[in-house]
Design a protein that fits this description.
- Two copies of one chain form a homodimer.
- Chain A is built from 15 helices and ten strands.
- Chain A is of the alpha/beta class.
């Protein structure tokens, strides 16, 4: 009997597919910490669909193709501190978080580090989209430039989907594109690590002490070790403030470790800075020779306010070649700020939103998700 | 910088090693269900040592070498129903469980199945030992012939140990022998499946409905699918009694499935037979054409009473070549039964146990573990 014949038997019920998928996810580390009162080591499969969601090929390919341009855009914007300041100063007036980041960026720009061409910056960005109906256009919701998450678990979900479609009669595995997010994130961090080139150094992962999405982070640490023999150390911003210092060369030392790369999986929300200690930690990293993923400037370049400004006519063209700007603009959904309610355009937008609330989402200026009003 | 240089940095504290090992175990499916009030899908790493336990090579190699002989012994004993009956009839008088198994074996022997040379039997046996001090001898504690567990998780623990020793400066990975228990269990079941050769059939895994050690079982099911495209269906003995029947050819059908192999991961304890329905399920399997892992005869051959009898002078030689019997006997610790307290040898043993309780373990006749008195 050939395996193919038996595969016909294997058309599974949704319940069987769910049970098999839960088992597969749990066997392959597609998990999150259980949290609550359970032991810290307890986990449960991450939320997932059992099968891939059909998605039109053209906008998918377009999104893949535009990503390098978006990365160049973030880099170009991050280097224009005058632009960042002009765009964000009004937000900074009522938002201490943005004000602190701007201040830190100013200090960095004023320091010698900025003029040192050896500085290594790493961008691990996630651009989020929604497929608009009925236009069929893919519209960018936001571009994450700090602590972009679910690259690891997303890669494993793609493997699960390939596994499930291979088993499901009538669906081929060819339809599930490979998802290299985990591998490429690891390559990026390892490349930065090697570029910084410090003996016996580590990747410092800046984390929350109680992180439910631990395994999405851990897969990156595991792969850094397994593929590159690079060790990762997890610390909170408060840990870094307590244990960290800069040596004479400006290298960040944290406890016994010399830090080649600071990789943020925390620090993107005001909640992550309950006291000035956390800002001390951030400042220490920012002023060190460590490669930052990201710098404060990259962080600022990803704020909604900056994205809103970039969407205005002629602004993208300050940072990108005309052709690239044209490509990027295709993905821009409308973004409207509310800081100047006397502005006629803002008034028009607010009126439209009150009349047709179903067309709008109210998003905060900062990163983190889960803070939207529909 | 070479990876080797960096490995020197990686001598980890016990706490770091523990955290890394918990993460590794969770990423690689070395897990058990959390149980209790937690969601059924919640898991936690299996109990494990962080590093392999040093073990003398000679007894290890001897244990590996004697295993095929023990397997032949089980097979030979299982075919001698008169021997099984004579050894177990006294236990059957006060133990319904053993009585039911003996009765089922008698019925099987009396049926046409026994004379059908095409019958396929699969043994997945686990021989448990303790290293005796100060003799240095490896002594067999018991031989499990039904539902031998931890083959899968044991294999993954070996991978963890190889991983940890590779990272730990001063320890090489060569010292951790490969553990092929999972792979070989899967090969055994697949071989049986192919020998039975029924179109569109499945492996029926006989399980408890609420199984904490689910993933040790699931790895076998996953590998059967991934390597051989053989599907596994989980059913309790009660499910099988309800959904099962024999077709005209004596093939076991269970729901929509035709069963090529019945693989028991339950059924070894009286607790698994709360009503006669479970015995109905066992009987249905036993009387079918399905390959059994194990048959009732194999199950009986693994009872303590039989092992105790085999340890008596001259008994092994009824079933094995003299040279093989000599090898096996080296691993026999003393096993003493208590059913005849008037027997002078039993009286002597009991007196010795009362005087020196530290030398003895009181074990029940049946399988399952956890029922010992020290």
């Amino acid at each position: 009997m050939a395996g193919e014949e038996k595969a016909v038997e294997s058309v599974r019920s949704a319940e069987e597919l769910a049970q098999d998928s839960i088992a597969w996810a749990t066997q392959h580390g597609l998990v999150m910490r259980l949290g609550g009162d359970s032991p810290q080591a307890a986990v449960i499969h991450a939320p997932m669909t059992l099968l891939p969601t059909p998605f039109p090929k053209e906008p998918f390919v377009q999104a893949v193709e535009v990503m390098p341009i978006l990365n160049r855009l973030v880099d170009a914007v991050s280097r224009d501190s005058a632009f960042l300041k002009s765009v964000l100063s009004s937000a900074a007036q009522y938002d201490d978080f943005t004000a602190n980041l701007l201040e830190l960026n100013d200090a960095t720009m004023a320091s010698s580090r900025q003029t040192d061409s050896s500085e290594v910056v790493v961008g691990v960005h996630r651009s989020d989209y929604m497929l608009d109906e009925p236009s069929g256009k893919l519209l960018q919701v936001e571009l994450n430039t700090i602590a972009s998450s679910f690259g690891s678990l997303g890669s494993i979900v793609s493997q699960l989907h390939a596994h499930n479609t291979a088993q499901q009669a009538g669906m081929g595995p060819d339809g599930v594109p490979a998802n290299a997010a985990l591998a490429e994130c690891v390559i990026a961090l390892a490349t930065a690590y090697n570029a910084v080139d410090l003996e016996h150094s580590v990747v410092l992962m800046v984390v929350e002490s109680d992180e439910q999405n631990y395994y999405d982070q851990q897969w990156i640490a595991s792969q850094l070790w397994d593929v590159y023999s690079i060790r990762t150390v997890r610390k909170t911003l408060a840990d870094i403030a307590s244990e960290g210092n800069l040596d004479d060369s400006g290298n960040l030392r944290c406890g016994d470790h010399c830090v080649a790369v600071a990789y943020f999986r925390s620090g993107y929300s005001p909640d992550h800075y309950p006291t000035s200690r956390q800002w001390d930690g951030r400042r220490l990293i920012e002023s060190s020779t460590a490669a930052k993923c990201p710098t404060v400037a990259y962080h600022l370049a990803g704020t909604k306010k900056v994205q809103q400004q970039l969407a205005r006519p002629g602004v993208l063209e300050q940072f990108l070649e005309e052709e690239d700007a044209f490509h990027v603009r295709k993905f821009f959904a409308g973004l409207w700020g509310l800081e100047d309610l006397s502005d006629p355009e803002t008034q028009r937008t607010v009126q439209e939103a009150i009349s047709h609330p179903e067309k709008f989402v109210l998003k905060p200026q900062r990163e983190g998700g889960g803070n939207n009003l529909y």
